[in-house]
Amino acid sequence: MSASRRKFLKLAGLTALGWSVCPSILRASTSEVIGDRAEGKALHAKRWAMAVDTHALNEKIMQKCVNICHKIHNVPEFDSEEEIKWIWAAPFEHLFPGQMHSRLMEVPEEKTLSLCNHCNNPPCVRVCPTKATFQREDGIVMMDFHRCIGCRYCMAACPYGSRSFNFSDPRKHLKEPTPDFPTRTKGVVEKCEFCAERLTEGKQPACVEVSEGALLFGDLEDPHSDVSKALEERYSIRRKPELGTEPCVYYLI
Amino acid sequence: MLEKAVKGNGLYWGWLGLLLVIMGVGAGCYLVQLNQGLTITGMSRDVSWGFYIAQFTFLVGVAASAVMMVIPKYLHHYKGFARVLILGEFLAIASVAMCLMFIVVDLGQPQRLFNVLLHPTPNSILFWDMVVLNGYLLINLLVGWVTLQAERKEVPPPNWIKFFIYLSIPWAISIHTVTAFLYCGLPGRGYWLTAIMAPKFLAGAFASGPALLILLIFVIKMVSKWNPDPTGEAVQSLAKIVTYCTILLLFFIALEVFTVGYSQIPSHSAHLKYLFFGLHGKGVYTAWMWVSMIFMLGASIVLLFPGNRRSDNILAFSCLLIFIGTWIDKGLGMIAGGFTPSPLETITEYIPTKMELLISLGVYAAGFFLLTVLYKVAVGVKREVDA
Fold first, then answer.
1. Domain identity same for A29 and A141
2. What is the per-residue pLDDT for A21?
């Protein structure tokens, strides 16, 4: 008994020593595990981008996109000005202020989808005082819900209104939580993450999957990707290009 | 010197007691906010900063205004401010303390506050604001305490403190400049995207801070046996600063109005239109904004006449108007106006809730508690030296 306890203590001590000398060992091993699991399956890109085919979208498809996104990401439902939304339908005149006029073929009041633009030069990342919002190598602008202090500077910085804040406990506003995705706590900011968790499983973003081809997703740097081909063939615009944020969500007109 | 703060008359203890009660109410409301989240405020997805951040911004100005006495006193050896300078420095300490409290009560996850230090992010202006505000607090505590202690011992202040006194001058400018940078560096917020934001902030600061200080000097004259300004020279000099800085602020506001009004770029002019005239039938701030302009314009015209400045009553009343006017401009309109209309050109109006106002009142009470204690110490020491 005492011998086994001594053995255990020795082992524990050595382990602790090992970690304290080289803490990266622990991290390296876990990332290897994740890497193994996703090996071969995960989707990779130099620069993820989305193209929204505004002609192909209709009310029904948009509603499907919103529903699936909010369902799998545990986005709570609020019927107030404190609402949380990752993707939503909004009129052209709101998404492209100053670019609409009454003689356009598309009526400015008509709606299309709005989501985080995953800007190449994201102001939200620039202003975050804790790096709780950060940009990955492949361009996706991510949130660390556990580091966010809830200062909401990113919401002031985002020129697209893409960010939402949990003014109250979101868990109370979830009808059926999805166990595969974390729920959030009150007092943190959240937004669309281009389904980064699905990309590691080799899946397209959920909204793209249900969009009946109206949303295209792929590598902007790969000339053969759906996005690149669509952008080559059709005229596209981006939201507020004059601000220099370089959005990676394109709207096919 | 702190022992001066534990001896006082009924008025002193009664005032501190009243502030404690208000602090208690504010703390109670804050507990509710901690429990329920920021949903108890009037803020929304579109107007994601509100009364707290506006008060923080306004008070940074009050804190910075101490520099308007430090410069004449230490760079130009102007003796007029010698007696009252400590009041300005202590006002700066109380104001910065309130600023920090307002930031904390605005956070969604205040217990994670130290993430700002754990993961320092120099590209965030908020990081720099934390650095300059805490630095300014420390500098003023050090300078105020050391100079007052030297005065008590009737010896000249040590030479090394000069470094911190001179440092406090650019530092004071920096706190309000960095605070302006919080806003004016954001793309897509037309009302804030203006290079004149920092100078406008500073002009407003040097109007509101000294105006408050004049009122505080009058209060000290009334409630204590020490006269901070027997010759009236300090108050007269402060009154001139208030007058010219108010006019400067109005001039800067006029420059803004011209730029957005004449260029007629909607994303820039919509905010001013919303604030002063309302947009699409919504405009809770229109009356406030006009009152602010009329107060500041009226009071600064009155104060331009030296005779009016020399009348204590007219001066005090004008300072009150200017303080209220600058408070409305920066502590109310600046934030709400910047968020309305939203980047999607929708209009969500922001009206602070009672809970939000009570928490804010609690923070103000805590600041004035600190200010009262500091002033008690200062007045006690000064009386001792005078006697």
1. no
2. 57
Taking CB atoms and an 8 Å cutoff, what residues of chain B touch A131?
119, 121
Say if residue A103 is exposed, middle or buried (CB neighbours under 10 Å; 0-12, 13-18, 19+): exposed
Model confidence pLDDT, tens digit, residues B45-58? 999 999 999 999 99
pLDDT at B335: 95
Show residues of chain A in contact with B189, CB under 8 Å: 156, 159
Residues A237 and A207 in one domain: yes
Chain A residues within an 8 Å CB radius of B121: 128-131
CB atoms within 10 A of CB B269: 18
Tell me: the pLDDT tens digits for A99-144? 887 777 666 678 999 999 999 999 999 999 999 999 999 999 999 9
Averaged confidence pLDDT in chain B: 95
Contacting residues of B for A120, CB less than 8 Å apart: none
A79 touches chain B (CB under 8 A): no
**Residues ≥6 apart with Cβ < 8 Å to B215:** B316, B319, B320, B323
Q: Are A77 and A14 in a shared domain?
A: no
Could you tell me the residue range of the domain that residue A12 belongs to?
2-38
Q: Do A219 and A48 touch, CB atoms closer than 8 A?
A: yes
Q: For all residues of chain A together, what is the average pLDDT?
A: 88
pLDDT for res A31: 43
Residue corresponding to tokens 């011998």: A3
Domain identity same for A54 and A104: yes
Q: Is pLDDT above 50 for A64?
A: yes
Q: Check CB contact of B182 with chain A, cutoff 8 Å.
A: yes
Out of A159, A168, A189, the one facing B188 most closely (by C-beta) is: A159
pTM, full prediction = 0.91
Residues A84 and A166 in one domain: yes
Ranges of residues in chain B whose predicted pLDDT is under 50: none
Determine whether the interchain pair A81/B186 forms a contact, defined as Cβ–Cβ distance below 8 Å.
Answer: no
Domain-wise residue ranges, chain B: 2-386
**Element (H or E) spanning B18, and its range?**
helix B10-36
Structural domain includes residue A43:
no
Residue of chain A with shortest Cα separation from B350 = A81
Pair A96, A180 in one domain: yes
Assess if residue A104 is contained within a domain: yes
Q: Alpha-carbon torsion A222, A223, A224, A229, what sign? A: positive
Residues of B in contact with A152 (CB under 8 A): 48-49, 106, 108
What average pLDDT does this structure show over A168-190?
93
Interface list for B 74-133 with A (CB within 8 A) = 103, 106-110, 112-113, 115-116, 118-119, 121, 123-127, 130
Do A83 and A113 contact (CB within 8 A), yes or no? no
The domain total for chain A is 2
* DSSP label at residue A128: -
Q: What is the pLDDT of residue A108?
A: 66
Hey, is the C-beta of A83 within 8 angstroms of any chain B C-beta? yes
Do A80 and A95 contact (CB within 8 A), yes or no? Answer: no
Interface membership of B188 toward A (CB under 8 Å): yes
The fold adopted by the segment(s) B2-386 is Formate dehydrogenase/DMSO reductase fold (1.20.1630)
Q: Band of the pLDDT at A20, cuts 50, 70, 90?
A: low
Per-position b or e across B365-384, b if 16+ CB within 10 A of its CB: bbbbbbbbbbbbbbbbbbee
Q: Is A113 on the interface with B (CB under 8 A)?
A: no
Give CA–CA dist B157/B145, Å, rounded.
10
